[in-house]
Amino acid sequence: MQRPPTLAALTCAAALLLTACGGEEKDTTSPSTPSGVSAQAGSATSVHVMWQHATDDTAVTGYEVFQKGTKVKSLPATKQMVDIDRLAPKTAYSFTVRARDAAGNLSKASAATAVTTPAPTPEDKEAPTRPATLKGKVDGGRAVTLSWGKSADNNQVTSYDIYQEDTRIHSVSGTETTAQVTGLRPGTVYTFTVRARDAAENSSPDSAAVDLTTPAAPGKGPSTAPTGLRATARKGSIDLTWTPPDTGGEPVEAHELYLNGKPATTIVWGTMPTGPTATYTMTVTDKPGTRYSIKLRAKLPDGKWGDFSAQRTVVVR
To answer: Are the CB atoms for 216 and 200 separated by under 8 Å?
Structure first.
């Protein structure tokens, strides 16, 4: 004997016209088309592609970069720039960008941007000079603008590479001496340096570093990052000095020291330092010329780790 359909079954059957029973309506809306796409030759074999973020009714989850219709890079939504390497010297290229959402919907391709890689200079072994007088200003909680003095090269500076700590995050033409860095976090200390690069991939030494702190988001407290970090290399050791964060009079009893982006040790004092400045000497056994990137963070009175300090780079003597 066949039972008549229940009200719930009839409701479910009707819902199938729009979606599967018990499921969610499928996302068929594509993200907006990325705008502001630009491409800059960084050397004879590489191009730096940049674009503005796209929007979506749910969320953009990534970007895809195409060279004349062929996908050459896939990136997460947090990235809006990429270096395309292993290109041919003295060759014209054209790039487009598409945004992608979690449902796999792709935006329309951006307007194409053309770029030509310069001729190679294989005998060029001379690096450009160090960029001079790096300065920066904060543009709200998520962006900063950097500026610097020109570098010199025996042939030509083709690009300037911007580094945040030890990671290259941006590049601009060798004719430009300013850059805006976006996608930052509010209430965070950032350390930037700039290097000049020529067509033979020779890179200059780092510029002097500049520390910039983005303002905290509304409702957030002051930064808990140690300030004024200095690192001085001596034979067999590196001396560190810094000012612990202000914790309203409560003592900061420990700091976590990071070397080259990884935790190295926890500094705990048996007797708390007197005065506003803390010091620590770390013994080093690496050969002279070894490069260290150093930063630290404090353990706050509530037991949580605070924000990271600015990063310092030092070379073993």
So the answer is: no
Nearest to 213 by CA among 196, 232, 229: 229
Structure tokens at 45: 């074999």
How do 46-50 and 178-182 pair as beta strands?
Answer: unpaired
Answer whether 41's CB lies under 8 Å from 159's CB.
Answer: yes
Cα–Cα distance, 242 to 189 (Å, whole number) = 14
Q: Tens of pLDDT along 104-115?
A: 999 999 999 999
Q: Which of 236, 80, 240 is nearest to 169 (CA)?
A: 80
pLDDT digits (tens, 9 = 90+) for 195-231: 999 988 899 999 999 999 999 888 888 889 999 999 9
Instruction: Of 13-27, 35-49, 80-94, give the lowest mean pLDDT range.
Output: 13-27
| CA gyration radius, the chain | 26
Q: Strand 143-149's sheet: what is its strand order?
A: 132-138, 143-149, 178-182
Q: Rounded to whole angstroms, what are the CA distances from 282 to 160, 199, 233, 243, 259?
A: 34, 40, 10, 17, 11
Residues 157, 310, 138, 54: is their CA dihedral positive or negative?
positive
Residue 12: its H or E element:
helix 7-15
CA 234 to chain centre: 31
pLDDT, residue 11, reads: 47
Looking from the CA of 19 toward its CB, the CA atoms found within 13 Å total 8
pTM of the model: 0.75
- Using CA atoms, how far apart are residues 182 and 170, in angstroms rounded to an integer? 10
For residue 311, give both structure tokens: 């990063």
Please say if the pLDDT value at position 15 is more than 50. no
Give residue-wise pLDDT tens across range 255-300: 999 999 999 999 997 666 667 889 999 999 889 999 999 999 999 9
Q: Name the one residue in this structure whose structure tokens are 């993200």.
A: 31
